[in-house]
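Annex B. Sample input.
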Amino acid sequence: MAEQSKLDKVLAAEREYREKREGDYREKALKLYPWICGRCAREFTHKNLSELTVHHKDHNHDNNPPDGSNWELLCLYCHDNEHSRFEELIRYGGTQEAKQEAATFNPFADLKAMMAKKG
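Annex B, continued. Sample output.
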């Protein structure tokens, strides 16, 4: 069998570290909180528990206080949405569109006059 490349070794070490870190706080969070998504209120059982994730409210995965105050349980979809919103905040400075003035153009403003000309 071919020897592992340096990249493969680094990736394997990172994956092992992440799994160990996640295992520690995930197990604690699942014991602390009901198995319900904190956003959409979807309920989970042992059968679909893999779809329930632990979200770090401050987005720092190394901030894992034992009381769970930096965690919330979110389903995969709500968790993905939360990270997308956070990335937009970082990238663009906010998740809200800039306020736009109301449109003032009315394509039917002179419709009566135009109809009268044709008639």
